[in-house]
Design goal:
The chain is of the alpha/beta class and about 375 residues long. It has 13 helices and 11 strands. The protein folds into 2 domains: about 180 residues, Nucleotidyltransferase, domain 5; about 170 residues, 2-Layer Sandwich (Nucleotidyltransferase, domain 5), CATH 3.30.420.40. The chain binds 5'-O-[(R)-(carboxyoxy)(hydroxy)phosphoryl]adenosine (KG4) and zinc ion.
Length: about 375
C-alpha cells in the first residue's frame, strides 16, 4: 500500500438530493462519512420536495462538516482539497453544497473540485476495494439514473453504453412501493418484503429484452404499469394483494434485466470487471444475482457496502482525491451547479477553463424547477 501520508486528504460535500453528505478520505482510505438525511420530511409527500431539501441542506451543512472533521480526527487546515457535487441533481439543493464548498475552500485557501455525482457513485468503490481497474464497466442504478457506463479513467473518461429510456430503476421501486402503500423510499422496504415472497409467483415483463431491442438500454415504465394493473385487478376482484409475492416478482423483473444487460456489456466489450453503484445497488437480490451471473461469466464483481451505495459525501471525496492524485486542475471560483450535468463530464473546471457552463444557466434551471 502507498504511504498514506502522501495520499491526498480531501473533504467531499454532497447535496444533490435529500442527503447532506460530508465525507473525508485520504487517497482511497475512508476516514469519515457523515450523512444528515431529510428523507423523513419528504415521506408524507411520497417523493423529495426540492425546496424542503434545500432548506434542510442549509441547516445541516455546518454541523455535518464539523461532525466529519471530528470523526476523521483531522483539522480543516490539513486538507489538500475540497470536492463538491456540481451536478446532476436538484438545482437548489446543489447550490447549497457548491456555495458551502466555495466558502470553505476560499476561507481555508484550499483548491476546489467540482465533480459529477454519477462518477462519484462509481469512484466510491475505491474506498472499499482499492483502485478501480481500467477499464471498468459500471452499472449505475439510483433514484434518478440507470446507466451502463464504461470508464478507462474515472476522472476524465466515462462513456455511456446504455441508459433508461423512461423511469430510473429506483424510481420504479419507489412507485411500486407507493401503489402497495409501503411508504417512501420504496427500495429498502420492497427489498425486505421480497425476502419473504416468491420471485416466480407472478411473471412480470422484462423491458427491452426482445431480439430487436437495444442491447444496453433499460425501460421500467411497462413493468411499472403491468404491476400496477395486476394489483388493481386483484383489488377490483375483492381479493387480497399478496404484497410479498408482488414485491419479490417485481424486484426479480428489475434485477434480472439489470444484471443480464450488465454482464452482456462486459462480455461484448471484453471487460472483466463490473462495478455496481447508486442507491439501488444496496438491493440484496441485485447483489446476489449479479454475483451469481458474474461468477458464471468469469467477471469480477465490485459492489460497495450499502451505506456507500446510497448518496453520501465520501463518494465525492473519493473522486476529489482521485482528481488531486492525477493532477487534474482545480475548479475556478465561478464553478456553478448544473442540474443536468452530463455523465461524460466527471470533472467540472468552471467557465474560464472553457467548459461552457455559466451562472445564467443555473438561474434558468432554478427557475424551471420552481415552475415545473
Ligand atoms: O443513489 P441514491 O441514494 O439517490 C439518487 O441519486 O437517486 O438512490 C436512491 C434510490 C431510491 O429510489 C431508493 O428507493 C433506492 O435508491 N434504494 C433501493 C434500495 N435502497 C435504496 N432500491 C432497491 N433496493 C434497496 N435496498
Ligand atoms: Zn445518487
Amino acid at each position: 500500500m502507498a504511504d498514506l501520508r502522501d495520499a491526498p486528504l480531501v473533504l467531499g460535500i454532497e447535496t444533490s438530493c435529500d442527503e447532506t453528505g460530508v465525507g473525508i478520505v485520504r487517497g482511497t482510505t475512508l476516514l469519515a462519512d457523515a450523512v444528515a438525511s431529510s428523507v423523513d420530511e419528504h415521506a408524507r409527500f411520497g417523493g423529495v420536495v426540492p425546496e424542503v431539501a434545500s432548506r434542510a441542506h442549509l441547516e445541516a451543512m455546518v454541523p455535518t462538516i464539523d461532525r466529519a472533521l471530528k470523526e476523521a480526527g483531522v483539522a480543516a487546515t490539513d486538507l489538500d482539497g475540497i470536492a463538491v457535487t456540481a451536478g446532476p441533481g436538484l438545482a437548489g439543493a446543489l447550490l447549497v453544497g457548491v456555495s458551502a464548498a466555495k466558502a470553505y475552500a476560499y476561507a481555508l485557501g484550499k483548491p476546489l473540485y467540482g465533480v459529477n455525482h454519477l462518477a462519484s457513485h462509481i469512484c466510491v468503490d475505491q474506498l472499499e476495494h482499492g483502485a478501480l481497474p481500467e477499464p471498468t464497466m459500471a452499472l449505475l442504478v439510483s433514484g434518478g439514473h440507470s446507466s451502463l457506463l464504461l470508464s478507462t479513467d474515472i476522472t476524465s473518461d466515462v462513456r455511456p453504453m446504455g441508459a433508461t429510456i423512461d423511469d430510473a430503476a429506483g424510481e420504479a421501486f419507489d412507485k411500486i412501493a407507493r401503489v402497495l402503500n409501503l411508504g417512501f423510499p420504496g427500495g429498502p422496504v420492497i427489498d425486505r418484503y421480497a425476502k419473504e415472497g416468491d420471485p416466480e409467483a407472478i411473471a412480470f415483463p422484462r423491458g427491452l429484452t426482445g431480439p430487436r431491442d437495444p442491447a444496453y438500454d433499460f425501460s421500467f415504465s411497462g413493468l411499472k404499469t403491468a404491476v400496477a394493473r395486476w394489483i388493481e385487478a386483484k383489488r377490483a376482484a375483492g381479493e387480497e394483494v399478496p404484497v410479498r409475492d408482488v414485491a419479490a416478482s417485481f424486484q426479480e423483473a428489475v434485477v434480472d434485466v439489470l444484471t443480464r444487460k450488465a454482464v452482456r456489456a462486459c462480455k461484448d466489450e471484453g471487460v472483466d470487471h463490473l462495478m455496481i453503484g447508486g442507491g439501488v445497488a444496496a438491493n440484496s437480490r441485485l447483489r446476489a444475482l449479479a454475483q451469481e451471473r458474474c461468477e458464471a461469466a468469469g467477471i469480477r464483481l465490485r459492489v460497495p457496502r450499502p451505506k456507500l451505495c446510497t448518496d453520501n459525501g465520501a463518494m465525492v471525496a473519493a473522486l476529489g482525491a482521485e482528481m488531486v492524485a492525477r493532477g487534474r486542475a482545480a475548479s475556478d471560483w465561478d464553478l456553478s451547479a448544473d442540474s443536468s450535468l452530463p455523465v461524460t463530464d466527471p470533472h467540472v473546471p468552471g467557465t474560464s477553463q472553457g467548459h461552457g457552463h455559466n451562472h445564467d444557466h443555473v438561474h434558468e434551471v432554478a427557475k424551471d424547477n420552481l415552475y415545473s
